[in-house]
Structures are given as structure tokens and as C-alpha cells.
Specification:
CATH class of the largest domain: Alpha Beta
CATH superfamily of the largest domain: Ribosomal protein L4/L1
Radius of gyration: 27 Å
CATH topology of the largest domain: Ribosomal Protein L4, Chain: A
Structural class: alpha/beta
Strand content: 5-15%
Helix content: 25-40%
Order of helices and strands: EEHHHEHEHEHEH
Oligomer: single chain
Strand order of the largest sheet: 2-1-3-6-4-5
Shape: elongated
Number of helices: 7
Distance between the termini: 18 Å
CATH architecture of the largest domain: 3-Layer(aba) Sandwich
């Protein structure tokens, strides 16, 4: 299939042939859902953690003798019944939320999402994006040109063919914008951004990785 190719000034300069296996795949919402939810689960960081009676400080000595004091029996101040003792059945950082999907499914999900975005007109191809220095101001101006042409201030995911350190440094401070290498494309990141701007070289790299 044919697609418009733009320069970094957001002007159409040519039409290019793009892979049907990458940009014309039928929608499979069940596959995308399964892959995206597994990625969200795998990225989840377990923060909440409570200490059990074996982790809290102190309690090595029996507080008082077993009999003769008139008080209830107590073996350790670490008991969950005591203030400052361990917590019973509290959340721990040992929880595992990981979900596995095979590589074939993950690759197919990327193709499905790219195809859906291409069909919706929110995937655009750019010949190349280059800046003289790693300056945020230059990159903001380039993105502003595309946003003006689109009449859309939504988030942008820029797909580069390889690691471009100058663009990465320049784009760190730009809100609603991220750069990703073509080989690292995944369904969740594609779904997280409204528009995808893909360099011509990145398209060729993605085809080598995701079209088997």
C-alpha cells in the first residue's frame, strides 16, 4: 500500500510503499487486550509491604513468666496482638503479578495496533528528523509544525530506526512526547500515545523485526 511521506517541516514530499503485513493487518482486539494487560502487569511495581512477626524489631525475650503474674500468657512482643508487633496477612513485596505472552503474540499485537493507527490516520511517516544540537527548542519547533498541520495537540510517539542520543536528550523535557527505537516497539506504548510519527528508516527496521 501507499502512504504519504513528510519532511521534518510537516510538508508532503513523496509517496512510499509500506508493508501490508505491518500496516494493513485486520483488527484483533482480544489479542491486543491480552498483550497490553500482560505488559501492564509486568511493569507493575510492588511498593506496599508490611512486616510480619519474623521481621519486626525486638521480641527475643519472653516478656514475663508463663504463670503467676495474673496476666495473659505472652511469648514475644512481636505478636500481632501487640502494638508495634507484626502484621497478620498484610501486603508484601513478594507478590508476583507477571503474565507471560509468547513472542509471536507480542509481535502480532504491534502489527495490529500499527495497522489500526494507520487506518485511523494517526500514523504518519517522516523522511528523517535531525537537529543541529541536542536542544529542546529545535525539537519543539519541529513537533509544533506537525501539531499545527494536524490541528491536534495530543501526545506523540516518535519511532526512530536506532538510538539517536541528540533527539533523546532534546526530548526529555517535552511533555506528551517520547522517542522509541523501532526494535523496541510494543503494543502498550503504541496505545499510550495518540499519534505515532515514524521515520522512514524505522519502518524498514520494524518490518525486519515484526514481520516474520
Amino acid at each position: 500500500m501507499k502512504a504519504e511521506l513528510y519532511n521534518q517541516s510537516a510538508k508532503s514530499i513523496d509517496q512510499i510503499e509500506v508493508s501490508d503485513a505491518l500496516f494493513s493487518v485486520p483488527l484483533n482486539s482480544d489479542l491486543v487486550y491480552q498483550v497490553a494487560t500482560s505488559q501492564m502487569s509486568n511493569r507493575r511495581k510492588v511498593i506496599a509491604h508490611t512486616k510480619g512477626r519474623g521481621e519486626v524489631r525486638g521480641g527475643g525475650k519472653k516478656p514475663w513468666q508463663q504463670k503467676g503474674t495474673g496476666r495473659a500468657r505472652a511469648g514475644s512482643i512481636r505478636s500481632p496482638l501487640w502494638k508495634g508487633g507484626g502484621v497478620t496477612f498484610g501486603p508484601t513485596k513478594e507478590r508476583n503479578f507477571k503474565k507471560d505472552v509468547n513472542k509471536k503474540m507480542a509481535r502480532k499485537a504491534v502489527c495490529v495496533v500499527l495497522s489500526a493507527k494507520n487506518k485511523d490516520g494517526v500514523l504518519n511517516f517522516v523522511d528523517d528528523i535531525s537537529i543541529k544540537a541536542a536542544k529542546t527548542k529545535e525539537l519543539v519547533a519541529i513537533l509544533g509544525g506537525f501539531r499545527s498541520a494536524w490541528k491536534d495537540q495530543g501526545s506523540i510517539l516518535l519511532v526512530a530506526p536506532d538510538k539517536k542520543d541528540d533527539l533523546v536528550r532534546a526530548g526529555k523535557n517535552i511533555p506528551k512526547f517520547t522517542i522509541i527505537e523501532a526494535r523496541n516497539l510494543n503494543a502498550l506504548d503504541l496505545l499510550s500515545y495518540k499519534r505515532v510519527l515514524m521515520m522512514k528508516g524505522a519502518m524498514e527496521s520494524a518490518e525486519k523485526v515484526f514481520v516474520k
